[in-house]
C-alpha cells in the first residue's frame, strides 16, 4: 500500500504558483491524465515541477531511439525491482518494434552483468550488440555506479557523445524514479513477484 495518501485527483491548490505547476504536469501527461506517481509528487509542487521538466526532457527531447531509451529505463526497473516502472515502460519498449520478445525477456530475466560485461560478445544473447552494450552500461551504472572502461569503450563504439550523455542521463534519471517509486510503494507494487513479461 502506498506509504502516503495520494493527493486528490484533481488536486486542489489555492496558490497560483502551485496551480501553474499542476497545469504543466497535466499538459505533459495529456489525455492519459495524472498518474499515481504525479499524485505522490504533487505533495510538493516545486519538486513535481522540477521532476516534470527533467523527466519530460529525458522522455521527449533526447535524440535516442525509443528502443534504446526504453531498454535503459526497463533495465533500471528490473535491477531496482520497480515493477510499477516496468509495467509502465515495457509496453513502450515492445511497441518500438526493434526488439523481439526473446530480447525483452532477456532484459527482464538476466542477472546483473559483471564488471567485464559488454567487453566481449555473447553468443547466447538475443540482444543485438548495441543493445547488449546499453544493458551492460545500465547494469554497471546502476549496481556499481562506476562503469568499467571496457564497457564505456564499447558504448563509444556505438553511440555519439550526445547519445552517451543522454543514455547516462536516462539511467540516472530512472534510478531516481525507481527509488522514489519503491521507497513510497507508489502503484502498490512492492513485494509483488517479478512480472512474467
TrEMBL record:
Coiled coil: none annotated. It comes from Phyllosticta citribraziliensis. Gene3D superfamilies: AhpD-like. This is 4-carboxymuconolactone decarboxylase-like protein. Pfam families: CMD. Residues 45-106 form the Carboxymuconolactone decarboxylase-like domain.
